[in-house]
Amino acid sequence: MSKYQPIIGLEIHVQLNTTTKLFCRCLNEYAPEDPNKNICPFCTGQPGALPLLNKEAVKKAIQFGVAVGAKIPERTRWDRKNYFYADLPSGYQISQYDNPIVEGGLVEFYIEDKETGSYKKSSVELTRAHLESDAAKLLHSRGKTYVDFNRSGAPLVEIVTEPVIRSSAQAMAFVNELQLLVRRLGISDGDMEKGQMRFDCNLSLQNESQQSSGDLPSYRTETKNINSVRSLGRAIEYEIIRQTKLLEKGETPVQETRGWKDDLNKSTSQRSKEDAMDYRYFPEPDLKILEISSSDIPELNNLPQLPSDQRNQYIEMGLNMQIVNTFVGQSQLGDLFDSTIELKSVRSESKNKELTIAIANLLTGPVLAASTKNEKDIEEFITNENLLDIAELFSHDKINNKAVVKIIDELISGKKDVKNIVSENNLEQVSDTGALGNIVDSVITNNPKVVEEYKSGKVQVIGFMIGQCMKESKGQGNPKIFKDLLTEKLA
């Protein structure tokens, strides 16, 4: 048991990608060039302006709830959250307090151990997710503050976790998974650089006694203005160190709200931490209680394959976690892999695990490298038929890595048929042990010093000798057979 154990809860604000704002018909457009372009009497807080609920935002919030296995109540209420700040012209925010649209839920994901490269399964329980309207944006310049109301009233779903996160690595993996999820559901672009996902981090440290009893500390700090995964990790580590120093001196950290300064890699105190009573919540008088029909839920339950389900499917195929995460995170690659596996099953090779792994390695290796190098989308130069042809030739030892690269180059140049490319360029590798044995004998004879180094224990020089064999065979020899023959003859 460590002396102090961090206990972390996150509040994640996700901007929904609806056409219009949450309570008016102004465009929900991120950062238009003209300030105060998409505004109306309601989203600028004019007296007497009434809210008009966006049904699409409600649907998107429910879809999120269904995806995380949450409870969707039959009735949900709107509340006024009262506070006064320059970016909130009405003096209150329409939100949800004790009757949110999403109750509970669970998000599963994997955490990478950077030192070992291994992955550990984890999960975070959600307390709730509720709908609320965003505030305006403040712009500070030359001692003056300007207000841009384009963002005012944008629909947000605020996702609140239970205080169950125990490390910066777990927090970072969780929000990465959450970004994948909202993008896969199509409810948000989740672009952190544009502020479409923002994080508030509540953190305190349990001492050994509290760890044993399960009691929570008597305080917590909230760090706001975190807008990237990297910054979230840094903010958590900073706060752990800051609070540890205070506790070591016998001081209890102040319950407060702190602002994260990414350029300084530190947080600074902003104000004392508010409790719910400080916001003077009360039911929103201008909106009805929202009734959600259970008959609507099945329609909203028609979801795409979720990232966690897709990840588990790839793990069962025997793919390593690095490749799995690449396919889950890059839908273009994942879709091409899936369609190639479907084609593979049509060719009656559905149980060939080696071929499945060869397809995955080709996609995440030479195909992805060629796409980056030539600045071409993958679907511009390779199809699932091409990919399966290359994988079959490679897994059956008909071609080697060098030939694979040549084939992909030819496909990029406009050629279409893999087998014709192999034939025209004489790329099929030789696996005849008799012919290759003669080359091995020649290489051994011509490199006596290297042979002596190998026999004296410097076994890594066999790589040089395999290279010499490949050179003598003009790249057509099977390197696996060259290695076996060299090992046998040098023994």
Reported for the largest beta sheet, the result is: 9 strands, mixed
Average of pLDDT: 92
N/C terminus separation: 53 Å
Number of helices: 16
| Overall 3D shape | elongated
Beta-strand content bin = 15-25%
Give the beta-strand count. 16
- Fraction of residues in H or I helices: 25-40%
Low-confidence runs:
none
Classification by helices and strands: alpha+beta
Question: Rg to the nearest angstrom?
Answer: 30 Å
Number of domains: 3
Task: Describe the structure in your own words.
Helix 6 (307-316) packs antiparallel against helix 7. The longest helix is centred in the C-terminal third of the chain and has 22 residues, at 353-374. The protein is α+β, with helices and mostly antiparallel strands and 491 residues long. The protein has 3 domains: 5-300, no CATH class; 307-424, no CATH class; 433-490, Arc Repressor Mutant, subunit A (Orthogonal Bundle), CATH 1.10.10. The protein has 16 helices and 16 strands. The protein is elongated and about 90 Å long. The two termini are 53 Å apart. Strands 1, 5, 6, 7, 10, 11, 12, 13 and 14 form a 9-stranded mixed sheet that branches. Strands 4-3-15 form a 3-stranded antiparallel sheet, with no helix packed on it. Strands 2-16 form a two-stranded antiparallel sheet.
Q: What is the compact description of this entry?
A:
The protein has 491 residues and is an alpha+beta fold. It has 16 helices and 16 strands.
Write the layout of secondary structure elements.
Elements: E1 5-15, H1 55-67, E2 75-76, E3 79-82, E4 92-95, E5 102-103, E6 106-112, E7 119-133, E8 137-141, E9 144-148, E10 155-161, H2 168-185, E11 197-206, H3 208-213, E12 221-226, H4 229-248, E13 256-261, E14 266-272, E15 282-283, E16 290-291, H5 297-300, H6 307-316, H7 321-329, H8 331-346, H9 353-374, H10 384-395, H11 401-412, H12 418-424, H13 433-446, H14 448-455, H15 462-472, H16 479-490
Parallel strand pairs: 12-13
Antiparallel strand pairs: 1-10, 1-11, 2-16, 3-4, 3-15, 5-7, 6-7, 7-10, 8-9, 11-12, 13-14
Helix pairs in contact: 2-4, 6-7, 7-8, 8-9, 8-10, 9-10, 9-11, 13-15, 13-16, 15-16
